[in-house]
Amino acid sequence: MPSQTDQLLVGEIQALLAEAIQVPVETVTADLTFGDLPQWDSLGHMEILMRLEEKYGVEVNAETIARLVSIPEILQFLKENEHE
Amino acid sequence: MNNNSIADYQVEIQPEVLIPDYLVGEIRSKLAYVDESITQAEVSPNRIVLHLDPFSQGINVDRKAEIIHKTQQVVNSMARGAFKPKIQVLEDHLDLRLPYQDDPMPELAALGEVSQEAEGIFTIGPLLSRLIDFFDRQFVDLANSFNAEPRRFPTLIPAQFMERVHYFRAFPHSLSFVTHLREDLEVIDRFSETAACEQGSLNSPLESFARIKTLLSPAVCYHHYLALADKPLVEGKSITTAVGSCFRYEAINLTSLERLWNFTMREVIFVGSKEFVLENREMARQRMEPFFKVLGLAYRVESANDPFFIGEFRKQAAFQSAFQLKFEIRALLPYRNSTLAVGSYNYHQDFFGRNLNITLPDGTPVHTGCAAFGLERMAFAFVSQYGLDQKQWPAFIRDAIK
What we know:
The structure holds two protein chains of two kinds. By secondary structure, chain A is mainly alpha-helical. Chain A is built from four helices and no strands. The longest helix of chain B is centred in the C-terminal third of the chain and has 22 residues. Chain B is α+β, with helices and mostly antiparallel strands. The mean pLDDT of chain B is 93. In chain B, the strands form six sheets. Chain B has an eight-stranded mixed sheet with strand order 4-16-17-18-20-15-14-7. Chain B has a three-stranded antiparallel sheet with strand order 1-3-2. A three-stranded antiparallel sheet of chain B has the order 8-12-9. Classes of the chains: A mainly alpha, B alpha+beta.
């Protein structure tokens, strides 16, 4: 069962993602993956990455662009990099 | 031309942001679209020099300021916060000893092997035509190795379709539009009596022409996706091949056979699941490698991005690079010590499947990819490396084109 900290972080990611790709936050499920919503396309993906960079200091590079393709991956990455 | 000096038709600009080395070429090619008066652009990381057309009207301080402003906009949009691409090299055979080092264009023109009709529009002579046919036969052999179904596609493509695949947003600068006279007797009569060309352009009023519903096709594979649109792909996979004329307007970059407005592409097109497309794209690359090696072509295959327009360039190029969606076959041009893309191995993920509603039997969007080869460029790269003296060519090519 996810910890309370994880749940809070997932909520933040969902909100960030909804704003980045301009969809209602209710449509952003906790396991949402690139391509699940038409708005999470290549341009949407880069918008998400740039907002993650701004909010959490994530470096946007080839590795993060290719890796951070789902909310669980983003969560895992932020935890590995000790963002809270 | 008036009494101004050459310096009056030159603009020197210090970019507001330093241009990374890996963007110098991309920015140079995009500056062609900044203003119609630009005839040449020289770009280095901290300096841009634009050469302006001495025959263009009204080049004064205000116009120059406007051009400088637009140039800074382009550079800022592409270079500010740019993502450095991670170049992956899959094949590297650039280090070959080649018999020819010159620019082949003057010799090709002198021998009647190329004849320029207009910018980016060339006719091709017998030797180059035989070379092109020879290369196409190799690409057809590749297609046959996949049992690809042959198809023929038109040169025209509906504007509506291009809208569905977001082409207007991604590549507006390279579009070529098609129209015809309006179905109106007066308009047609007036045209037939008065139409003439002034400095190469038709003098007819724009109102004479019908609204644009059709474009010249920029790629071969689009037609296949259009044919599959809005229905399930019953067999779950498809491999097709076709050759066709493609059109990409490149403004002042259209200088030789390196960049043609009207060129020919052979494609092998894969449609199916992600695994099916990726596996076949890779197999196509592996099957072509021995041919290029035997040919003695100096080239490399490396990750690349499409020439997206300024607004989308930064994000789309980074995305393509990170996911390794495109690998280009880049042949050496010894006379300029640079490389030219003569083909590419592409993976579009489920972009066309989603936007054109093409589904697999399980209801998910299909994935697509293609191996694409530019036939004129292929022949041009070959004669750039081996010249026009056939005695210098590999024997098997001499025999094949007899």
